[in-house]
Amino acid sequence: MLLQLLFVLIAIIIGARLGGIGLGVLGGLGLAILTFVFGLEPTSPPIDVMLMIVAVIAAASCMQAAGGLDLMVKWAEKLLRKNPSKITLLSPLVTYIFTFIAGTGHVAYSVLPVIAEVATETKIRPERPLGIAVIASQQAITASPISAATVALLSMLSGHNISLMDILMISVPCTLIGVLAGAFCSLHVGKELAEDPEYLRRVANEEFTSDKYRAKGVENHHAALLSVIIFIAATIGIILFGSMTELRPWFSLPDGSLRQMQMAHIIEILMLSAAALILLVTRTDGIKAVQGSVFSAGMQAVVAIFGIAWMGDTFIGGNMAELKGSIEHIVTEMPWLFGLALFVMSILLFSQAATIRAMLPLGIALGISPYMLIALFPAVNGYFFIPNYPTVVAAINFDRTGTTHIGKYVLNHSFMMPGLVATGVSVALGLLMIQLF
């Protein structure tokens, strides 16, 4: 088993270094080694999870193509420019809401330069709002009803009488409070901008330009607004179907029994319908939708889940007896330790959904209660730990003052403190909630 684990880790590390679809295709190579060299039987690929993500990405991409994302950024810019002194508290709420609505943290790219510019103009150290804003966009993944991670968690816990609302009732308040805790801790990070040596050096050397960033204009305001309304309506529909099971239709089977429609199919149908309506109502070119950043990032996530999660699932399934025998007594005594395992795996996999898909079968097999797994759900937000995730790199590049940075020892970077605070508070509150309720 240890030799198999070594190959799994090598595939993950090399795939992460390759970037893009590298993580997914290296997972496929690792799966080939597990199957043809070690003789493990492949488990079923996570088709339902992948199709749900494809449907959500299709709708989000159409909204972006119609100008909906640009419109949301304009709204965010107006809010931040009206309240510049509160930017460290408001910016994480903006990126949290963006991700909650869209289901992907990559929408934060569009608002990060606005945050950096408003902070600089107000003479607030940009590191403070940018650091927690990036973390908030990650935390919201585990609160969004249409994110790949939430969809994966729901599909794997559906057999345990867990509904979407059961997940959201814990994940939304916990992650939101965790983000606010991280924001308050960020209020006094570092020196004031006027005293920061790197900023002063850039000003003295004329490296700091005075060019002001403005959010991209919306070409067709009416079409953009319609796309946002349609997308949000589909998201609300998913929440209603997920929380009120009586709304889901029943179908007769050939043997006379009845079967209720699965949430996976509802998510896929509603999101594909939303994508179609956006294209039809706003008269947006479908080709434009696949050329946007949301589609590209989303498809990378699908490939990652396809390869990495399938490889991880096969490894765990093939070694379940040995894994249970070695760690079952520890996890039974201290089930919260499984959260630490989720955190470490998310650092390696750079994906909340891939982490859930790879690790949750082990948690279920170890007898950890579904509500404990939901409470530990925010622990999959650990990929800020190593500062090479795209949104992390983007935030550093957007900060013209140089205050948002990676330290000499790599791990002492601008996102570590807010990330640890937000994740730690979210998980702690989740554990408290399941004890109280």
UniProtKB/TrEMBL annotation:
Belongs to the DcuA/DcuB transporter (TC 2.A.13.1) family. One of its GO terms (molecular function) is C4-dicarboxylate transmembrane transporter activity. This is Anaerobic C4-dicarboxylate transporter. Keywords: Cell inner membrane, Cell membrane, Membrane, Transmembrane, Transmembrane helix, Transport. GO terms for cellular component: plasma membrane. The lineage of its organism: Bacteria, Pseudomonadati, Bacteroidota, Bacteroidia, Bacteroidales. The keyword Glycoprotein does not apply. The chain crosses the membrane at residues 6-37, 49-73, 93-118, 167-189, 223-243, 263-282, 294-316, 336-355, 362-386, 415-434. It is found in: Cell inner membrane. NCBIfam families: Dcu, PRK09412.1, PRK12489.1. Pfam families: DcuA_DcuB (PF03605). The keyword Protein biosynthesis does not apply.
